[in-house]
Design a protein that fits this description.
The complex is a heterodimer of chains A (402) and B (260). Chain A is an alpha/beta fold and 402 residues long. Helices cover 42% and strands 19% of the residues of chain A. The longest helix of chain B is centred in the first third of the chain and has 14 residues. Classes of the chains: A alpha/beta (402), B alpha/beta (260). Chains A and B meet through strand 2, helix 1, helix 8 and strand 11 of A and helix 4, helix 6 and strand 6 of B.
């Protein structure tokens, strides 16, 4: 079923393709801009000065490397595998999103673009983009679904404080998907002057590759840190998957280490019926949404399904194309955890370790809680805590009756 | 292959199929042809039309709310073809409904319905290998968009693979009306003509007789979309065919342009 669309020549190995997935399915108006971006990105990556500037900002401004923390009390309370937490939540702005926002922000500056637009779901990418635009003196407009603006109100205020304009999106499901569509409408209109700072490993080529590259530092650090602490690679790396940027960043350097299991955790929402969850690999089918060919939650007519998750950042109908390939080849496994399990995981991590994870990251924590007891004490689980939960206090207070 | 623009300027009329109903779309299309439309573009409603402005977004929402499906759109295409042999008939769709229907099955069914061409808004020439093969197998004209931002090398590729007519986008942006035809459009059409002998139709923001007259100076046809969809939105299903017919007749009247 995945061979619906193939490159012009099957023997042709093209950039931006992950197996049959990925590619570039956009209005013609954007193609030249994507070409320009692809070339500018390739030039930047080959420029030692760009790498040096980015690395300095990642270290001195964002706070890399982030710690790999042995969660002793959580481990002991579960019995089984040793659990390590990759603390992306400790980064400036509170999530891994800053890695990519800094990289693309520098690229926008290098390309001479003065205006930056972005979409955001949970608001973490919007905050990271607003932050980088303040730092680099760029105009910033962030599109955000009305539902997400309401449930992630704190991040809306942060973006405004940072000088960004936040534009609510009232079409469709009023969540991340609709914010991306509106950002793309802006970009297609203002393409000559505007840089679209896409926040997940989604969209048309070169975005999935570029966003993944800017988050590779996560798995690079995990690898050296775990080798230093344990002298061996982990049994498994666990990460939540919305669009999939933190997960691909946490997986990438382990792709060739076949003994390391890679586990992506999708949002199981509040039920298994279409519309009640955002588990693309359980009910989705290959299709094209917002520029890329990947798994998509859709009905039998190819209309995109509504989704639900307690976490705005995982509440999306498609998934990054590289994950689609890793799913089909079996290199990574994808499971889901529902809203209730994520909320339980927040409480458990808060009370055993004093760490409040974002609701998105809590899905990965929930999976670790489920599987840790099935492993032996010699096994090591690394959980990517992609963001911190302060932004979710409103939802948590309501759901947990605090 | 009846995609022809015998009159000058040619008129391509876009309708969102199923808005306000399939029966109404069929009646409006027939009225539009009788009023002088050379080509009807039947738009397949899609849940996430990221290339469209608010007018067509609303039309698609209404069409989907009545459960309009791709097979229904092909059904009214068949009816229109049976009733009007000479008109050009194009399916205008986002890619995903076509993929879900099955590319091969879509090509077969569209051809069987009497459709002449297909315009998939988010399909670009580089990705179109299998798509082009299917269009070619059944003899459907693949129509690609050409944009003001498309460099010459891309226009050459677009011209190479397009059949029927080249659809030139008048300006960067999404569909919708505008005050004046952008200066981008004439330059783009001139560049397209370096690579293609096909007729060139200009669309996006063409909404009145004045615009059509301007387009006629440098292109073969004008595409009218949002202006007609908005007219349908304001009419009732019963009055829409007449309203659209009157509007289309007014687009070619020379004095209508001069009077402004």
């Amino acid at each position: 079923m995945a061979s619906i669309i193939l490159p012009a020549s099957p023997s042709e190995s093209r950039p931006g393709r992950f197996g049959v997935y990925g590619g570039r399915y956009v209005p013609e108006t954007l193609v030249a801009a994507l070409d320009e971006l692809e070339h500018a990105y390739a030039e930047a990556r080959a420029d030692a000065a760009f790498e040096a500037e980015l690395n300095t900002l990642l270290t001195d401004y964002a706070g890399r490397p982030t710690p790999l923390y042995f969660a002793k009390r959580l481990t002991e309370s579960l019995g089984g595998a040793k659990i390590y937490l990759k603390r992306e939540d400790l980064l400036h702005t509170g999530a891994h999103k800053i890695n990519n926002a800094l990289g693309q922000g520098l690229l926008a500056k290098r390309m001479g673009k003065k205006r930056v637009i972005a979409e955001t779901g949970a608001g973490q990418h919007g905050v990271a983009t607003a932050t980088v635009c303040a730092l680099l003196n760029l105009e910033c407009v962030v599109y955000m679904g009305d539902v997400d603006m309401e449930r992630q109100e704190l991040n809306v205020k942060r973006m405004k404080l940072l000088g960004a304009e936040v534009r609510g999106v009232s079409s469709g499901s009023k969540t991340l998907k609709d914010a991306i569509s509106e950002a793309m409408r802006d970009w297609v209109t203002n393409v000559r002057t505007t840089y679209y700072l896409l926040g997940s490993a989604l969209g048309a080529h070169p975005y999935p590759t570029m966003v993944r590259d800017f988050h590779r530092c996560i798995s690079r650090e995990i690898k050296s840190q775990i080798l230093e602490k344990e002298g061996r690679l982990p049994t498994a790396v666990v990460a939540c998957v919305g669009g999939g940027s933190n997960a691909i960043g946490a997986f990438y350097e382990f792709l060739n280490d076949r003994e390391v299991r890679l586990i992506g955790v999708e949002a199981g929402g509040r039920g298994t019926a279409l519309g009640e969850h955002a588990a693309r690999f359980q009910g989705g089918a290959p299709g094209v949404l917002q520029g890329t060919f990947s798994y998509v939650l859709q009905d039998e007519d190819g209309q995109i399904a509504l989704t639900h998750s307690v976490s705005a950042g995982l509440d999306y109908a498609s998934i990054g194309p590289e994950h689609a390939m890793l799913h089909d080849t079996g290199r990574a496994e994808y499971v889901s955890q529902d809203d209730a399990a994520a909320l339980d995981a927040v409480v458990r991590l808060a009370r055993t370790e004093g760490i409040l994870p974002a609701l998105e990251s809590a899905h990965a924590v929930a999976e670790a809680i489920r599987i840790a007891p099935t492993f032996s004490a010699r096994d090591i689980l690394v959980v990517n805590v992609s963001g911190r939960g302060d932004k979710d206090m409103g939802i948590l207070a309501r759901e947990l009756k605090l | 292959m009846p995609i022809r623009f015998d009159r000058k300027p040619g008129l391509v009329v876009y309708l969102t199929a199923g808005d306000p109903s399939l029966d109404a779309t069929r009646a409006i299309a027939l009225a539009a042809i009788d009023a002088g439309a050379d080509v009807i573009e039947l738009g397949v409603p899609f849940s996430d039309p990221l290339g469209d402005g608010p007018v067509i977004q609303r039309a698609m929402e209404r069409a989907l709310a009545h459960g309009t499906r791709l097979k229904d759109v092909l059904g009214i295409a068949r009816d229109i073809r049976a009733a009007r042999r000479a008109a050009g008939l194009v399916i205008f769709s986002y890619l995903n409904p076509i993929l879900r229907y099955g590319l091969k099955r879509f090509a077969d069914d569209a051809k069987a319905a009497g459709v002449d061409g297909v315009l998939a808004t988010d399909m670009i020439v580089e990705e179109a290998g299998e798509y082009l093969a299917e269009m070619s197998r059944v003899g459907l004209a693949p129509i690609f968009l050409a944009a003001p931002t498309s460099p010459d090398a891309r226009l050459e590729a677009i011209a190479t693979h397009t059949k029927g007519f080249v659809y030139a986008i008048s300006r960067t942006g999404i569909t919708g009306t505008q005050a004046a035809v952008a200066g981008d459009a004439a330059a783009l059409v001139a560049r397209i003509r370096r690579w293609s002998r096909l007729p060139v139709a200009v669309g996006f923001g063409i909404s009145n007789a004045e615009h059509v007259a301007q387009v006629a100076e440098f292109a073969d046809a004008a595409v009218i979309g949002s202006a007609i969809v908005e007219l349908i939105e304001r009419a009732t299903p019963e009055t829409a065919p007449d309203a659209v017919a009157r509007f289309i007749k007014g687009l070619r009247l020379p004095h209508a342009a001069l009077a402004r």
